[in-house]
Design goal:
transmembrane helix, mainly alpha, transmembrane, single chain
């Protein structure tokens, strides 16, 4: 009988530990990666806009020279 009680107790402790781990870990594990990717895309878009604006300005000034 003692062996059965010890087995059930061990099973309960193990089950509690696994449930506690699942409930306390962050469920948004991938959100930080997605946020970094979105920031990188935003920075690339801003750089593309700035390069386009500078290229247009230089082209218009070069046209005035000739």
């Amino acid at each position: 009988m003692l062996h059965l009680a010890a087995t059930i107790h061990t099973l309960g402790v193990n089950l509690y530990g696994r449930a506690h781990t699942r409930l306390t870990t962050k469920p948004e594990r991938g959100s930080e990666t997605i946020e970094k990717v979105l920031w990188a895309v935003a920075v690339i878009a801003i750089v593309a806009i700035v390069v386009t604006a500078i290229r247009a300005y230089v082209t218009s000034e070069a046209a005035k020279i000739g």
